[in-house]
Amino acid sequence: VQFVNPGCPIPAESTAITHITDEMVANAPSFAEVGKQFIEFCGTDCVLIAHNNDRFDKIFIEAEASRSGLTLPSWKYIDT
Description:
globular, 2 strands, mainly alpha
């Protein structure tokens, strides 16, 4: 498990769902710091499966990678 510091306060609605607080991510690295490791971990032939993937995870990963100047492989995504 790797927490990522979003660089902004976590909305109360998000904390209510995830139970992740600002204090828990205060000393965590940014996505720019861990994104490359995540891409290397997943490799190029990967299927990312998550609940609500199409509306959250995929969009979040792609946006953070772009913001960090990282190019994502052509991963396949499955939304449960």
